[in-house]
Every structure is written in C-alpha cells, then in structure tokens.
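Support reply, case 0932

Customer input (verbatim):
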Amino acid sequence: MITDGMLYTGALKSRQSLHMTADLDPTEVREHISKHPLQHLKKDGTDSGNPVDIIKGDVHIARTYGERYQWREGVDFNYGLNATYNFGQQYVENHADETPDATKAFPIPGLDNADSKAAGKADDSLQTGLADDQKAGLVQKNFGNQYIYDEGITRTWAAGPNANGPHKEINFCGRYIENQLTATSGDPDPSGINGIIGDQSLAIKTVGDEARYNEGVIDIHHKGDMLHKQTGNHISDITGDTTTTITSDTAKVEETISGGAVSRSITGASKDTLEKMITGDITETINSATKIAVNITAAVEYNEIITSPIIKQTRTGNSDWLKSAENQVVVGACFDTYLGGKVSTTGGAVNENFGGVKLATYAGPKIDDKKIYIRKSKTKLDKEESVLKSGKIGKFGYKLTFIG
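Our regenerated output:
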C-alpha cells in the first residue's frame, strides 16, 4: 500500500496481523502458532485461566516472524495509562555507535544451571544459530557511555528465584567507582587511590562528605593484608563492650605516634584489666624530650606483683620518694651498695629487728652523734685496738667485772 498523502486505517473491534519473512515456511509458522496459543491475562499480568478469544475481538493481536530492520528518526510521544508485560526470554544490545562493529561483542561466559537448561530446551526451530544467552534469561549489553539522571524517590524490592530466599547479585571483572558529591560533571580521576586499579580489583573513590547509619549486627570478615591511611582527625565513640583479638604465629603489633599531644582517658569504667601472654621478650621504650608524669590514684589499694628469678632496675639521675608508710619484707639476702654519700633522716622512731647476725663493716670512721644512746644487750663482746672515751658523767653498774 503506497499513498502520497495521509493514510488512515481503522478497526472498530480489533486488529489482528501476521507477518513472516520469505525464508520461512508458512506451514511451519502456523504450526508454531498452534503450539504457542496466547493465554488471556488479567490486568496484573496473571493468568485468567482462559485462552485469548481471537474471534470476539476484545484484544489486538500481532505476530511477526523473521528478522526485522527498523530505522526510526524523530521523537515519539506516548500518552495514556500503559502497562507493559514481557514474557519469555529477552536479549537487548544497545550500541552508542550506529555502525556495526564486530569487535564490540561480549558473549556471556556462562549461565546458571536453570538458564542453561532453559536454553537447551528453547524452541528455536524458526530462528537457528542463537547463542545460549539469546535463548534464556533477561540479558542486556550496553556498548558506549551511559548517562542516567533520576529525579524522585527510588524504591527497590528484590527476592531470590521464585521469590524464595534472598536476592543475590554478583559483579565480575575489575571496576572503578567514583562518587563525585561536589561536582556535576567531569571525567574519572583515580588520583589519591593507593591500591591497584585493574581488571581484577575494585576501587572506590568518594569526593565529598559521607554519612552512614547502621542499626543491627555488622559482621565483616577480611582476609588478606589491609593498609589504612587517614589524613585528618579521627573520633571514635563506642557505647558497649569492645574486644580485640590478634592471633598469629608471628604476630607483630606496632603503634607509632608522631607529633602532637597524646591523651588517653578512661572515665566511669568499673574495671580495667590488661592481660598479656607473651612467649618472647617484651620491650617498652619511652623517650621524652621533657617530663614523664604518671599519676595513679586508688581509693582502696594499689597492688603490683612482679614474679621473675631476676629483677633489674637501672635509674640514672636523682630519685625522690615520698611514702606515707612502708612495709618491706625481703626473703633472702639483701645487699645495698652506695657509691656516694648516704644521708638518712628519720623524724620518728625506728624499730629494727634482726633474726640473725648483723655484720657491719666500715672502711672509714663511723661517727654517731646522739643525744641519748640506750643499748640493751644480753651479751656484749667488743674487740678494740685503741679506745678513747671522753665523758662528763659515767656510771657503771656491773655485778661481775673481768679486766685483762
């Protein structure tokens, strides 16, 4: 039908059309139609239980068999209430370049078991030569840059196959994702990413502020090395228990703080426990250019226990001690060596009890300056080479005296 003017066609009841290409056998096409009758559907796309009445004329029916080439230039405007239901496999390829390019092809490496079985059972008698991804599933391939703009609220629901189980999504091949929150256009800029950007890596870059809120359990399992770098302040506010476990045959934990002031504060904790089980050496080195101050306040008791066959302490510089009271018990020998002068000042009474022998050796003179000297001994043995005593008043009360 050819017309130089407007062509007007109308059907008062319905319109049915059947088109097939010349390379198809009409007998095979009609046989295919008889095997695939149209089932009448409700407005929600569910089966009404009845076939489509092709005589009554309540619906429009169009069947097309064979390849179709369509060139469309112009703008389409569609109005009215419309709902579209697509049943059966669908394969769509979108190419930004209208010139066919054989290099722009990507065969799906593999379908899942259900789609592979469906592709094997598909009736392709009228269109041979199709690949499996053209006979099963919903397949879409895009070749070219995509520009998507959404305005409004997007709500997404998902479920597993046949609405059973959770929805699963698998992303193959490496990719670079960039979230530009401070710009409206531009090209990808992977600068600032320290990791590898390649065919087998996932790189994500976000420029702009980011806020997240999670309510529920978060279970993260990371396998492999992790490098974390941050430039800027870091504030962590945790309400609840915190447990950190590091397990490794060659565990190495290093913490390096350079520059600035370091402040740690624990307030309101009912108990603070630090347990270390180390099979090797423990080395703690603190270097300060000025002062090191440690303030410990215990309302009840401060208890420090060190168990070791050998305990060594080396201190260089002056040491000042202030104690309200001290009880010291030494089980074993006690050796004090003073290489310089020793000055002891006691403002109260001193009570010394020795359960064994006390041996005092002086390489130089011993000078005692005492206002009152009272000594009580059951047995006294003095061996002296030279004796000089000078006193104003002397009283000796011996029941028995031996001289010589």
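We compared this against your earlier run and they match. Two observations from our side: DSSP finds two helices and eight strands in the chain. Strands lie at 16-20, 39-41, 47-51, 61-65, 90-95, 138-143, 175-180, 202-207. Please reopen the case if you see a mismatch on your end.
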